[in-house]
């Protein structure tokens, strides 16, 4: 039910009422039945300095020019307005629509909540005693609530603006920041006439960039003699000299007009190769000297040709010396009027000459000028005519340009001249225009002439409509320019503004195309530049509205969820306004409450417009529905918890409030971390029973735990156990190693096989943050396990900080995902208090770093005669060989060099040093060896600052977590002792107590890794009993054993376990020789 | 005429830090290509971003077909931007086409650059008798012809090829920016790129360069990286990225950011 304008006006302050009036005027002009928020936006944008416009300018996305983005915004507003139904009879004051009135009411309510900023107007009417207190809405709040209107935010989204950003910008006053206007403006070279580049260009005929640059060098005070360097240098040299000697002196700057080139290259190359006599050479130099003296113009250029001739093996050293000294003499005598010029194919050629004549660069005053491309007329550039013949049809492409000319009005005289010329071009005759006639007088006219560029092609153009068109366009442009310069002192016309005046439907057409992700005909790509819509990236269009949709409901409080959903999901259906019946809104709302969104969707009337967006809709509705579920469930959870009644809809999940249950469950999985598990269980049960994190007054559902210290496997296992008990399945674990980029890929590592599920293929093309965000979206209920948080990059750091503060995880695009009800577990090897004790830890035989390097080798048993006095020590006839690299070096063969490096460097926690050390031993030829130490210093100073930054962040971050849990190291040495005892027992049972067994260190590492990783506590014992014991028996039969023989259990280098029992990284059988 | 160069080429300076870092995009993209990389550098550098005049995000009217025939004009633009921003020293990261521009800029103004990082760079795309640039002249003509005949189809074919790695997002993004370019400009620029030959001038570079090369790049064979290292005049290193394709900043931004930061701090 629309409200009369006068009634609406009463709720507004004067300023806001004016805005409303403008909106009404827009609606009246378009003869619409009602005044909507869109009209208001359109009116606000039309004002040159409105709050909205200013806010848009401040929030616009960087990559596109503000003008373009504003254009896009105006365009999409226009398009949306066009689609509103117009009323049959013209209304004087189209009444205010429901949605706009609602916006006014919202702003009233909003203002009431901020009493410091509202103006209460006590309307005391004389004679009447009651005081009506009526709140007048200020313009700012009016705009703010209009931005909430879904239609408006969709329109804004189409132009790449986000209404939430705009709102922020309106609320917060502009802040001064690093601004580009601080610097003096620099004009784009091809736009201004004051620019030297342009000036010199206007004097050229050939348009050869190389010649232009040579000219610039010739003009210089010092280093005025160009030496062209580059593969094409000789061509450039030739074309330059030809150009000048053919009388096209205008290839030179005006100051040097009349300069001529004398080629001495033939004589010089002949002379140094002994073909030309010294007399002849001498006379040539004399001739050069005379020529300089007699020249009336600015002087002469001596072209000495290719430097290659002077340094080639065939060249006689004396002759070259003579040439060089003669040229130097000439130059000294006539430094004002003589230039030298030459070419070198490569810089190396020049270097050789420098080697022979070290002072030549100074003596000859040379300026090496890089030449990187052929002169224009040759090579690939040859056939290119801009625009001409490029498009199969000219119609599409003509439009923006014809518009230019429409929007720019030439004066009458110039228009006549233009039409005259255009007619001639169309007929195909040659044009002798007024410009030609007066081009001698004014130099810039000649440049304008160039603009047509194609007068030579006139004959050809007759056959080719495209070229003809190009010619006519050129003519138009030329006469525009002339007119502009001669008759109107106004600045150059703004072409892009004109070009964006293409019919708005066309622009929209493109936008629609983009939305469907297909642009199949080539005309679309042309549309792309014809209309300003390329400034709205296709992806943004698709993603932005959708994301807004998701963010808002999640952010809002539970009870308002449903309502917001319904309003925000409507615009995505892209229903024409007449289809948006209020009934469909309510049906969605109701269904949301019941949790069956799909059903209602499919039962909606299937109008043709609707079906066009089916695909898009399905996509969106899918994501909405998961969101809805998530929100609904989390709401239910929170309600359930806060009212401390057990949630009936919790599925198979256990009640996390039960400390004992949790403790027992985790203890079963990881038996060696009692203390850690105890504090984890306490923290979780505390949070879940209502004493958790608070955000304002409401309870937050997310729990943050930090696992500090060693025991990588234990941490991971606890995390996945948490996922299992909290969310029913281990699948709801999102595991990401933030330090993964520092991995050096080691094939067949036991631990890498375990981590296979988060291999880098999933990270491809994404930042880690986006990967995490994607996973969070997929699994709204999960334990997020982030390893090595100390290695997180800035992006991750920022997102995590935000997430822990606000309960929302933002990806790199700024899209936010609610993390309520998730459990975040971040790990770090660093423990805050004993950071030093890690590196200076007491000597452990099997450190964790070494175990992490374990590989799944195949094993074998060898037999050997004991060399020395192999006596049985400490009651066991089994011993472990010392770690390689620590043991005697004689046994280290070449292959093991890498292993040695590994173990030597393994304790280096300073990864910078490690890298350098590695590169030393691996002989990285890229790094110059002598600079290594210096490099390390530089690197340290820089990476130190990065590291301190990270440390500061980590400290701050860890302050905020729910619980910090410090892990103990897994006691590998004790385990090793136990395993050895087991093996010894088995060994004695088979071979008797006299025999000796040596176990390789690597084997031991592998066994320990298996024990650490395996789910069952007895896994390694079982393996010893079954596999190893069987192998011992086989070995006894096979090998001929004497008393002094020693058995050896070693790994097969390079041979990895294939057929292994599930869940084990130990071989199923052991090789015998 | 309020059109400044900075505005025309959408120059942005982001981040806080003492040192300047220029991120220059390559052919067929615009500055948005760095968005995955940028956040890793804004805390430590003032990052300068700009669009090449041929990029789709720049008003095509600024593209002067007579001026931008050689790389030197692009170099002018770059140096003008740096001068306008009053940059006296900066590190430069250039991809592909911009790597060439960076090389030339450092020849002209060696004091301006502390370090060049060249991603997917090549001094010459065409093969020569003792140089393998990856393309035969005939092939190039075919490519240019295809581009001319049906730009749309060419983009659809070229984008996945250039991205190399199987990353749909990156392909979509690259296609988008390629499409944004006006076809005639694309054709013109690719002609001038293929027409350029920097081999002779590499020795004039005195700034130290770091060459980033992916394991497989359709536009740049690995031998080119070695060639660059051996012929550039400064102190050079080659850094191999463990990923595929010509656009590692799109297909593997995280990896590239880490490697870049290391290379810059060396």
From TrEMBL, chain A:
* Entry superkingdom: Eukaryota
User: Which GO MF terms does the UniProt record name?
Assistant: ATP binding; ATP hydrolysis activity
> Which keywords does this Swiss-Prot/TrEMBL entry list?
Repeat, Transcription, Transcription regulation
Respond yes or no to whether keyword Transcription regulation is given for this record. Answer: yes
Q: Which residues form a coiled coil?
A: none
**Spans annotated as Disordered:** 507-534
User: Is Repeat given among the entry's keywords?
Assistant: yes
Where are stretches of biased composition, namely Polar residues? 520-531
Q: Domain Clp R spans what residues?
A: 8-179
PANTHER family assigned: CHAPERONE PROTEIN CLPD, CHLOROPLASTIC, PROTEIN SMAX1-LIKE 6
Q: Which family does it belong to?
A: Belongs to the ClpA/ClpB family.
Return the protein name: Clp R domain-containing protein
- Organism this protein belongs to: Carya illinoinensis (Pecan)
Taxonomy, top ranks, is: Eukaryota, Viridiplantae, Streptophyta, Embryophyta, Tracheophyta
Automatic annotation (TrEMBL), chain B:
Show the taxonomic lineage: Eukaryota, Viridiplantae, Streptophyta, Embryophyta, Tracheophyta
Recite the UniProt keywords alphabetically: Hydrolase
Recorded protein name is AB hydrolase-1 domain-containing protein
Q: Name one GO molecular function term.
A: hydrolase activity
InterPro entries hit by this protein? AB_hydrolase_1
- Pfam families, alphabetized: Abhydrolase_6
Similarity section: Belongs to the AB hydrolase superfamily.
Taxonomically, which superkingdom? Eukaryota
Boundaries of every AB hydrolase-1 domain copy: 21-257
Q: Does the keyword Heme apply?
A: no
Keyword check for Hydrolase: yes
